[in-house]
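Students often ask why we bother encoding 3D structure as a string. The short answer is that it lets us treat folding as translation between two languages. Here is a chain of 150 residues written in the first language.
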Amino acid sequence: MILVVADTTPLRYLVEIGYEHLLPRLFTKVWIPSAVAGEMRRQRTPAVVRNWAEQLPSWIEVRKIEGSPSEPELAGLDRGEWEAIELARAIHANLLLIDERTGARMARAIRFHFDRRDAGTPREDEFSRDPGSVRPGAGAGSQGSGKPWQ
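And here it is in the second language, the structure alphabet:
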């Protein structure tokens, strides 16, 4: 099983554009730290995201991260980011969905290396060019609908 942890922004924008259904097609489960779940439920978050986060699908697993960052390098990140990195370390994740280059650099600085892609959410052209390019062996989708993997 591919172990995947998501930070707030990649998950939030997939929900906003109606493509969150791609994740369970690619991965059995996506883990998120409780800070990410909380960020998605904030009042200033778009209603579609808040509503989705209030009743998370069964393929989302929320884990509580206790205390503060274990590495000083992570202290400069927002709570959702450093919790996502800590959770990825704790479960030995293969992939971290994170949009911040700073967060990915910090993860590398503490010698935590992700499997192949460690720099964030794939760009739209990566989805449309070749669905298999998002992650080797992640799964195949239909290209016939005009929308990637729908």
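Translate back mentally: The longest helix spans residues 79-90. Keep this in mind for the problem set.
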